[in-house]
Amino acid sequence: MVVLTGGVGGAKLVLGLAAMLPPGDVTAIVNTGDDFHHLGLSISPDIDTLLYTLAGKANREQGWGRDDESWTFMAALAELGGPSWFRLGDGDLALHVVRTAALAAGATLSAVTVDVARRWGITTQVVPMSDDAVATEVLTAAGTLPFQRYFVERRCEPVATGVVFRGAADARPAPGVVAAITAADTRAVVIAPSNPYLSVDPLLAVPGIRAALSAATAPVVAVSPIVDGRAVKGPTAKLMREFGFAVDERTIADHYAGVIDGLLVDARAPAADFGVASAAVDTLMNDLDDKIRVAHAVLALADGLRR
Ligand code: FO1
Q: Which of 9, 203, 208, 306 is least surrounded by Cβ atoms within 10 Å, i.e. has the fewest?
């Protein structure tokens, strides 16, 4: 199984799939458009959410960072007049320091990620979409904002008119990405219920990934992030409205038209023609049983599809 994913919502589905399949059978290809440099550190939020979630270290209430976190560094930073808009916990900081040092010494982001996953006993393969820099920027009424400035500092408040993925056109898929998507024994490629505009589109903007999705023999199936006319988390619904779309499953199906063969929607969605094969299940994922239920439904939908 291959999953194209952003942070929290996608990590839940990856966890469900990993729980029902043999170790090593799931490859998560992760958005790196949120990555940025802050205080001299290389920060990869979605990769880290996958790593923390799969290692059982995620801070679930906060939705990012690690659990049992302490904040001595942030307090000391504030005392010195350092920036406080982006919060780095002490344990989280260690990961950024290790990654920054490894990248400075010539390692690739994918190699650093493999190393952390191995140390934490993670058997799911966590692969950045690219080792080349891609930076998501949001075009807003307040000007063009780098992703974290829009998302964290401005809390997604400025009205968005578009999104660009700087560097994506020249970015090469990281080693293993194309092979995983196109492998003859890949059962399905799943687009996680992540934000289509901010988390999945950066992956689709990498030409080699889009080409691999066209060449794949496995069906490509998306899980809709819409539940009962809302997005489960984050600014997905707000962006849909700002871009002039209805907040419904049809908009998701249209967004992925030409890429997907099937769409898994929430059981509360009104019956509709999505232009592709579809199935419905309760897609809210709180506990592990929920995640496994969605994982089963996505596999069942994909197994019924031929390319
Ligand atoms: N999100 C916030 O809303 N506030 C923060 O201070 C913050 C810090 C942070 C530090 C490390 C990290 O890996 C993620 C962090 N996030 C924070 C989440 C980050 O903005 C993610 O990119 C988004 O949640 C989108 O996936």
A: 306
Q: Evaluate whether residue 262 is within a structural domain.
A: yes
Residue numbers of the domain that contains 10: 2-34+123-306
- Is the separation of the CB atoms in 49 and 7 below 8 Å? yes
Give the ligand 1 atom nearest the CA of 63.
Answer: 24
How many A from CA of 4 to the centre of ligand 1? 19
Decide whether any atom of ligand 1 lies within 6 Å of the 35 Cβ. no
Looking at the domain assignment, is residue 130 inside a domain? yes
* Ligand 1 contacts CB of residue 86 (under 6 A): yes
Ligand 1 atom nearest residue 34's Cα? 22
Asked, for residue 147, whether it belongs to a domain, the answer is yes
Q: Is residue 282 part of a domain?
A: yes
User: Which position has the token pair 């950045």?
Assistant: 128
Closest CA to 178 of 129, 115, 227: 129
Task: Note down pLDDT in tens along the chain; length 307 residues.
Answer: 999 999 999 999 999 999 999 999 999 999 999 999 999 999 999 999 999 999 999 998 899 999 999 999 999 999 999 999 999 999 999 999 999 999 999 999 999 999 999 999 999 999 999 999 999 999 999 999 999 999 999 999 999 999 999 999 999 999 999 999 999 999 999 999 999 999 999 999 999 999 999 999 999 999 999 999 889 888 999 999 999 999 999 999 999 999 999 999 999 999 899 999 999 999 999 999 999 999 999 999 999 997 7
- Centre of ligand 1 from the C-alpha of residue 211, in Å: 30
Give the residue carrying structure tokens 């199936």: 221
- Total domains present in the chain: 1
pTM over 0.90? The answer is yes
Q: Which residues contact 76 (CB under 8 A, 6 or more apart)?
A: none
Please say whether the beta carbons of 129 and 29 come within 8 A.
yes
